[in-house]
């Protein structure tokens, strides 16, 4: 085996390059499919399936990243293999020792049919760089590599968070990428012996007598080669068609008229938009994509719906977190100017849709991450108003963690209404909510301590007192596990990754090994 590898190392490298390309195309087809946001539609289609079957669909962005990493790995394998190939091609073309590689490299110079070549470097004076930039495969390969590097490097979290526009526009290089990918195989650089030539000169019989090719005493003829027909389009055609269909559908939906019925400016520079759109139907925890042409013609940003399905409008809360959101808020602050036009696409499903499928639900929101739970809490209020007996959920624990006191004002009225509604219906124990303030100083704490005996909290005006610091999650999970020893508990988070790790560990730690006892299922909102 070792000797065979030494004798046929070029064939092995070509095989590696070919396999790398095909695996790469297969993976890229998945990436295009996933890029089309079809997971959101697939989630809706599989709505009748149980939670376990739908849960993987909620990790579509994780899958997107893993597929991208695989593309990078197989691209590197493909490039390295071809670099070795071209080095061997160059040496074979320049060799004057009459070896088999030298004879095969000179085929194009002895044949009337110039397309019968095997070595893409067709003369001793041709350099590897020249062959690369004058061939379809080489030029498209360079463009593919540059586009991939730009897309990957601009997608790192730091750039994505702080320079979203750079990430957004650079990521659309995938259009150039797909075009070059479809053209990449047209150069026919990977070649094979023709069927007719195989009948006249089989490699097994004629490779050792190459000095006697075409001679009267030999039955072997000079071999003829041809390039493999391009096949990349076969792999990417269906995903591209699916993606184009999805873009047409989204364009059609986005062109439907959106009426802004109310604009509210909240503390901490948060804008609330209440809107109506014909045929719009939503579920709790879903989100929409929003575009404001006067701010940016091409940029679409996701925002969680804060309204309930029972309301006759849908709303979003927008926090200033970058150039686009700052410009949008500024546009709505100027009341004397015409109301900016808003385009909406969606809604799209998320993990929060499953909240009412659990007997006990734990909702954890960090800052503006409270928005999906505002929709859930509003829906609960309406369900109690209408005496909805189909509600499966028996208990909800709600934790809201904020850095500044002004943030609590966003949904103060909602929480106050829920408090009152629970009291009137005798269901005070149904909702247990806790507010945590992480950005505080001694003055705020001292002021709260002096007024602790008052009926309402001095910071929020609610009956539930504000806690300072962060929740002790082990204590919280232990209390829930003790109170509901045989329940299925759904834990839902909209917040940072560090908090997600802590909650995920607690879910595993406090879930019983006995499937008949308490089980915690962790779910995280991912955009």
Automatic annotation (TrEMBL):
<dbReference type="InterPro" id="IPR013112">
    <property type="entry name" value="FAD-bd_8"/>
</dbReference>
<protein>
    <submittedName>
        <fullName>NADPH oxidase 1</fullName>
    </submittedName>
</protein>
<dbReference type="InterPro" id="IPR013121">
    <property type="entry name" value="Fe_red_NAD-bd_6"/>
</dbReference>
<dbReference type="InterPro" id="IPR000778">
    <property type="entry name" value="Cyt_b245_heavy_chain"/>
</dbReference>
<dbReference type="GO" id="GO:0042554">
    <property type="term" value="P:superoxide anion generation"/>
</dbReference>
<dbReference type="Pfam" id="PF08022">
    <property type="entry name" value="FAD_binding_8"/>
</dbReference>
<dbReference type="GO" id="GO:0046872">
    <property type="term" value="F:metal ion binding"/>
</dbReference>
<feature type="transmembrane region" description="Helical">
    <location>
        <begin position="66"/>
        <end position="84"/>
    </location>
</feature>
<keyword id="KW-1003">Cell membrane</keyword>
<keyword id="KW-0812">Transmembrane</keyword>
<dbReference type="InterPro" id="IPR013130">
    <property type="entry name" value="Fe3_Rdtase_TM_dom"/>
</dbReference>
<dbReference type="InterPro" id="IPR050369">
    <property type="entry name" value="RBOH/FRE"/>
</dbReference>
<dbReference type="GO" id="GO:0006952">
    <property type="term" value="P:defense response"/>
</dbReference>
<keyword id="KW-1133">Transmembrane helix</keyword>
<dbReference type="InterPro" id="IPR039261">
    <property type="entry name" value="FNR_nucleotide-bd"/>
</dbReference>
<dbReference type="Pfam" id="PF01794">
    <property type="entry name" value="Ferric_reduct"/>
</dbReference>
<feature type="transmembrane region" description="Helical">
    <location>
        <begin position="166"/>
        <end position="190"/>
    </location>
</feature>
<keyword id="KW-0349">Heme</keyword>
<feature type="transmembrane region" description="Helical">
    <location>
        <begin position="12"/>
        <end position="33"/>
    </location>
</feature>
<keyword id="KW-0560">Oxidoreductase</keyword>
<dbReference type="GO" id="GO:0016175">
    <property type="term" value="F:superoxide-generating NAD(P)H oxidase activity"/>
</dbReference>
<dbReference type="GO" id="GO:0043020">
    <property type="term" value="C:NADPH oxidase complex"/>
</dbReference>
<feature type="domain" description="FAD-binding FR-type">
    <location>
        <begin position="253"/>
        <end position="354"/>
    </location>
</feature>
<dbReference type="InterPro" id="IPR017938">
    <property type="entry name" value="Riboflavin_synthase-like_b-brl"/>
</dbReference>
<dbReference type="Pfam" id="PF08030">
    <property type="entry name" value="NAD_binding_6"/>
</dbReference>
<dbReference type="InterPro" id="IPR017927">
    <property type="entry name" value="FAD-bd_FR_type"/>
</dbReference>
<keyword id="KW-0472">Membrane</keyword>
<feature type="transmembrane region" description="Helical">
    <location>
        <begin position="128"/>
        <end position="154"/>
    </location>
</feature>
<keyword id="KW-0479">Metal-binding</keyword>
<keyword id="KW-0408">Iron</keyword>
<keyword id="KW-0325">Glycoprotein</keyword>
